[in-house]
């Protein structure tokens, strides 16, 4: 396992432990917490890595990916990505589906993660590896009431993590990391 994937895995485990202490509203909230945890672990372990939010991976790509984290070798400049030989260590995209039972979220705006969007994200991440822009990619879907777990498993078998209810009847958190 690469150092970047190790740091991500440990950060996701820490997120799972602390999940009830957060009140996530949007996917960027989760990405921000993961970024903080990844930076803490990188510093603690002394790894020569850096984590950025919305790091440019190609020239002219001006879209804002607030829910994307990119792990690079320490000292890598984003301009290096415009050279054909440069690769980032890991690209992580975070998707978030809040529970429809939350009082602070209007059910009218749910679901937030739509299946065409989900599969588009998966394909885009795969293309980054195929184009040699990233050594690896991960998509994390945090689904607070397991809305998509059944739907996606009908499409193809996926390995979901059950994080449980955290003693909250409005939660049944499932997480997919692919």
Reported for the largest beta sheet, the result is: 6 strands, mixed
Radius of gyration: 16 Å
| Strand-pairing-aware structural class | alpha+beta
Give the number of DSSP strands. 6
Tally of separate helices:
4
What is the residue-averaged pLDDT?
91
Short description:
The chain has 178 residues and is an alpha+beta fold.
Question: What features would you highlight for this structure?
Answer:
34% helix; alpha+beta; 178 residues; globular
Describe what this molecule looks like in 3D.
There is one protein chain. The chain has 178 residues and is of the alpha+beta class. It is 34% helix and 20% strand. Helix 1 (3-18) packs across helix 2 (27-45). It is globular, with a radius of gyration of 16 Å.
Topology of helices and strands:
Elements: H1 3-18, H2 27-45, E1 49-53, E2 68-73, E3 90-97, H3 115-130, E4 137-143, H4 147-155, E5 160-164, E6 173-177
Helix pairs in contact: 1-2
């Amino acid at each position: 396992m690469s150092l970047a994937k190790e740091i991500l895995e440990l950060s996701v485990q820490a997120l799972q432990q602390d999940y009830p202490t957060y009140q996530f509203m949007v996917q960027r909230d989760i990405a921000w917490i993961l970024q903080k945890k990844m930076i803490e672990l990188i510093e603690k372990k002394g790894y020569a890595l850096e984590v950025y939010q919305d790091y440019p991976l190609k020239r002219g790509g001006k879209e804002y990916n607030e829910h994307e984290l990119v792990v690079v070798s320490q000292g890598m400049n984003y301009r290096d990505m415009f050279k054909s030989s440069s690769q980032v260590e890991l690209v992580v995209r975070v998707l978030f589906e809040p529970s429809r039972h939350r009082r602070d979220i209007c059910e009218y705006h749910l679901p937030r993660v739509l299946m065409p969007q989900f599969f588009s994200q998966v394909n885009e991440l795969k293309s980054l590896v195929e184009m040699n822009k990233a050594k690896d990619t991960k998509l994390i879907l945090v689904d607070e009431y397991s809305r998509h777990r059944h739907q996606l498993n009908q499409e193809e078998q996926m390995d979901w993590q059950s994080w449980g209810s955290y003693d909250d009847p409005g939660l049944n958190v499932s997480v997919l990391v692919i």
